[in-house]
Design goal:
The protein is α/β, with parallel strands linked by helices. It contains six helices and five strands; from the N terminus they run βαβαβαβαβαα. The structure holds 4'-phosphopantetheine (PNS). The site of 4'-phosphopantetheine has 9 residues, from β1 and α4.
């Protein structure tokens, strides 16, 4: 049974994230979406809200679960008794940072490998930050975030 961890901030989850989760769930036996509790950042949504939105979004995918984590990603991955991390790659601009993270993670935990999935083309320029910016100015968010996230964003920013 191959378990993979898909980590992120998910502030909030976008359809780009959802696409990576759905495709990963077809490749791996089980996917754990790891929501980072980053105490150094002030996210728009609380940890509990981010976890709940993800749980609602992935409700239809049997082999996906959502958990939060604190501290180092590699420690969370080891705690889950696996060695696979999934990350989505959008445009070339993601590459540097993602490569740096994957390499750093392998230095501190050589058994942990990162598998990159290329983001589907329609989501290649989508990010949580863009979504939050659009939400502020009343742009229709259909096509950017899962249905269940739209009302949460409107409530939060109104
Ligand atoms: O959605 P994001 O913000 O791009 O996700 C980044 C994330 C959560 C994968 C990354 O910041 C992370 O793994 N943080 C945990 C702390 C850690 O392990 N840092 C070392 C990696 S260089």
């Amino acid at each position: 049974m191959v378990v993979a961890v898909y980590p992120g901030s998910f502030d909030p989850v976008t359809l780009g994230h959802y696409d990576i989760i759905r495709r990963s769930a077809k490749i791996f036996d089980h996917v754990i979406v790891g929501v980072l509790n980053n105490t150094a950042k002030t996210p728009l949504f609380s940890l509990e809200e981010r976890v709940k939105m993800l749980e609602d979004a992935v409700m239809d995918i049997d082999n996906v679960s959502v958990e939060s984590f604190e501290g180092l990603l590699v420690d969370f991955v080891k705690q889950k008794k696996t060695n696979v991390v999934i990350r989505g790659l959008r445009a070339l601009t993601d590459f540097d940072l993602e490569m740096q993270m994957a390499q750093s993670n392998r230095i501190v935990a050589p058994e942990v490998d990162t598998v990159f999935l290329s983001t589907s083309i329609e989501y290649s320029y989508l990010s949580s930050s863009t979504v939050k910016e659009y939400a502020k100015y009343g742009v229709d968010l259909k096509g950017f975030v899962p249905e269940c996230v739209i009302s949460k964003l409107i409530d939060k920013l109104s």
